Amino acid sequence: MHPRPSVRKVMWGRIAILATVVFWAIYVVTTIIRQFIESSGGFRFTMEAVGYLIVVTFLTFSALMYLLARQGALYRFRAHVRVPRAELDRHFRDYDSAVTVLVPSYAEEPAVVRGTLWSAALQEFTNVRVVLLVDDSPNQKDPAARARLDATLALPAQIEESLEGPRSRFAGAREAFAAERAAGVVVERRHIENLAGDYEAAAIWLEDMAENEPMEDHVDEFFIDQVLMGLASELRLSLLALRASLDQASYPDADRVLELQLRLERTFTAKLTSFQRKSYASLSHEANKAMNLNSYISLMGRDWREEHTAGGVILRPVEDAADADLIVPDTPYLLTLDADSLLLRDYCLRLVYFLEEPGNERIAVTQTPYSSFRGAPTRIERIAGATTDLQHILHQGMSHYGATFWVGANAVIRKQAIEDIAEVESVGGFEIVTYVQDRTVIEDTESSIDLGTHGWTLMNYPERLSYSATPPDFGSLIVQRRRWANGGLLILPKLWNQVSERRFRRERVLARELWLRVNYMASIAWASFGLLFLLAYPYDSRLLSPVVFLAALPYFLAMGSDLRDCGHRFGDIFRIYGFNLVLLPVNLAGVIKSLQQAITGEKIPFVRTPKVKDRTAAPALYVIVPYLIIAFSVLTFARDLQAHNWGNALFAAFNATLAAYATWMYIGVRNSIVDVWLALLNWLYVDKKKAPVAAPLLVDPSKPVDWSSILYHGDRRLNRDLRRKGDRRRRVGVR
């Protein structure tokens, strides 16, 4: 649960919003307009003033949107009342629907995937079906990669086998009591004693598992403390209540006893399996997470028969399940979960209950935007985690204003909703269905806009129930943040289409929703270019004013307060500023990639964030640029100091200091030298290019005719190949 904000905190949030707007307006009047009236600075000064005003306005707008979203989060945290446990149990007592948990995975460490699968399998929900979507190539030639893939594929069966013991015990106890209840037997002491014994056995089982779990890093510690021991603690709390009931000789009624037994049975009941889309030629092999999800979702609710062809194994739908090789059950809800994320025990229970509350029928996606794991061993992981925790708060606030975006690490999705936005195309004669768009590398953001266009809404649940890993080094962080910076500009036109559709349906579209959405998708672009101009261009000192600092002050004070509420330090606001300075080239690269895609129309390759125990080498450009920022800021400081331009000198000194600190702490001088040296070696030593391999002949004269390939492909190359074969036969005298 989030801490309940005080009246004072909410009041200061409103004052911060008002102060930001007022100080910006004062700056425009007292500095920009005043300079235009009192002096004629000429064309250069006029252009500088206009440019500086644009930069300051956009940066102030982003700060204002932070404060606005934060204020919405405070309202939600203040109003949120947790649904009592008994109400959840009553709602799901006779529940017969199911949820399919989809865990996309690619080249993941088996230990990382194992924790994710366990957190999904131990969800206190009926009919949980966990599917591990392994995207590695089925034909691994490297022995290490093959061993890792085999270990990953073995995880679902191992977890299901481990759950079988407690599942069978608690299912048997529930069936026995249900039979007595149907016969009209009233609750007696022995029933409560048996139930208390089951709860104690379940807690002991979880505690024994926690004791035997390896603890190699802070993620393992979180899994043990929050997933396993957290569930055990809740079961022991129920055990305490049951024992108190025995002591007081006052027992729960039969319905409540049945609900408590169902809770145990469902907690330890889950079906786990794995699926490899690249084993089938009829499914998309696009290298991104979206199509990995889409491939499996497109199979749900139908039975399939495997057909072996010369082009590979393909899936054909069949009507009779007896003829099927692959049966994919359909469920009304999907839970997408990244392979490096963990869910707390009642994530699925509370979010599905929320979707089924009256009035929420048109909510397509709900989630708790993920938080970072505590206790990270590296400074860069801790500060990156701090920014993640801030984003969690902002996403909660955006829901208050109807501007929710789907954040793809975890979400409960109403399947009917994504069926409404599905697009079907024929590729190579096979039907490919796209539910989650893969046009950009931020597929969840684009799908959020698509859902809104079709009349669906999204909502974040105001609790912290999901956690995800943060890149532990600069090299892997570059991959993640460059992907985050790419695609927002490309999705903006879809937002205008959504607004037009909603207004056509006579829906009210408020300006604050549009402001928040535009800021979410485009702020990285204007903030990056704006910061670049402030760093690089020597603006006239007449444009500087302390009022600009006062306009930004509420933003930094609010951020510091939010960091402290999330368990970080108030002083992390300066570390985050330096962190953003060293990430400036990364964000600019992502924005430029978006512009490139807009011009060429080609998809940007989806690059997954490396999840390895060793450090990931960073590209030399992203290592060198932070040092250039430091050097240029020092040079600017010295120049402005000599010119008595105190405002610019102070700003340059501030940037140089924080950029130097961030480079030293988050990149490291030694790691910088290593990464630049590796880049130089890769540039000097180029692998010998292999001669291009011609496309294989479908008819090889030296081998028997592959009749199945000829009949399946029917390729135009066959005429050429047959002529070559005939010419060769004639040359050797064969008629």
UniProtKB/TrEMBL annotation:
The keyword Transmembrane applies. Keywords: Glycosyltransferase, Membrane, Transferase, Transmembrane, Transmembrane helix. Gene3D superfamilies: Spore Coat Polysaccharide Biosynthesis Protein SpsA, Chain A (3.90.550.10). The chain crosses the membrane at residues 12-37, 49-69, 514-537, 543-561, 573-596, 616-637. It holds the Pfam family Glyco_trans_2_3. It is found in: Membrane. It is a multi-pass membrane protein. This is Glycosyltransferase.
